[in-house]
Task: inverse folding
């Protein structure tokens, strides 16, 4: 098989055979009744033809397409709890310590740092 894809004048290069093979496969899949019947009865052949069609970019006929799978049911989402409202109190209504904290905040700065 590898020898068939080589150019006889330059055996180190491969001939690009993608479009020709894609057209040939498309013709076989659309027009050959024996292949259609055999692919319907033999899942292994259908699997190989499906993979080959995907590789070559050929649109697959209906008899090769897989049936759609049903979706797995998802568990319902849990209800989201609303966050508690944060009530902002004015400075004089706070119950936090006012003495030392207030003095540290309002003291005169004597140094640059």
Result:
């Amino acid at each position: 098989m590898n020898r068939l894809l080589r150019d006889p004048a330059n055996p180190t290069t491969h001939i690009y055979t993608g479009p020709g093979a894609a057209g040939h496969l498309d013709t076989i899949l659309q027009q050959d009744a024996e292949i259609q019947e055999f692919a319907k009865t033999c899942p292994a052949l259908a699997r190989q033809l499906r993979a080959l069609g995907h590789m070559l970019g050929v649109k697959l006929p209906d008899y090769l397409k897989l049936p759609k799978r049903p979706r797995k049911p998802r568990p319902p989402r849990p209800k989201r709890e609303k966050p508690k409202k944060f009530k902002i109190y004015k400075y004089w209504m706070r119950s936090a310590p006012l003495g030392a904290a207030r003095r540290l905040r309002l003291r005169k700065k004597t140094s640059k740092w």
